[in-house]
Amino acid sequence: MKEMFPDTITIYNIDSENNYHRKVVDKVYYHVDKIITPEAHGEKYTSVHRVIFSNESLKSYINKAEYYELQDKINNFTLNDNDIIVLGEYKDIDNLEDIYNSNFDYFTIKTISINENSICKIINNIEVTD
Q: Which end of the chain is less packed: N or C, by CB atoms within 10 Å?
């Protein structure tokens, strides 16, 4: 039987001093769609990314306020607009050029949906998109 959350991502939480805090997160599901968007001189193909975090993957998730109070952020992550998600496991970085120049697919978080009120707690999740 196929696993419901088979994927791994790398999140880079960016702090106020532009430091990149890396966290590899397993047990997520990601999907990339290609859509056509209008442009001034025709149409353009654009990628749309979606990541759904399973209940299990959220064990190291904490809210923004708690996260930024931590001295050592290595064991936790949070989700903020404009943080970076790389599909797959990626290395520590000092600047975004490392990701831009790689062959890895990545996106900047634009929307965050927290779904924690389901009747069955096992299907609570968080979804992020670009």
A: N
Asked if pLDDT for residue 1 goes beyond 70, the answer is no
Going from N- to C-terminal start, the domains of the chain cover 7-129
CA angle centred on 19, ends 15 and 23, rounded to 5°: 85
Contact 126, 115 (CB under 8 A): yes
- The sign of the dihedral angle between the CA atoms of 87, 91, 92, 94 is negative
DSSP category for residue 54 = -
75-129 pLDDT tens trace: 999 999 999 999 999 999 998 999 999 999 999 999 888 776 655 455 556 767 7
Q: d(Cα 121, Cα 130) in Å, to the nearest integer? A: 26
CB of 85 within 8 A of CB of 14?
Answer: no
Q: How far is CA 10 from CA 28, 41, 77, 87, in A?
A: 11, 35, 10, 7
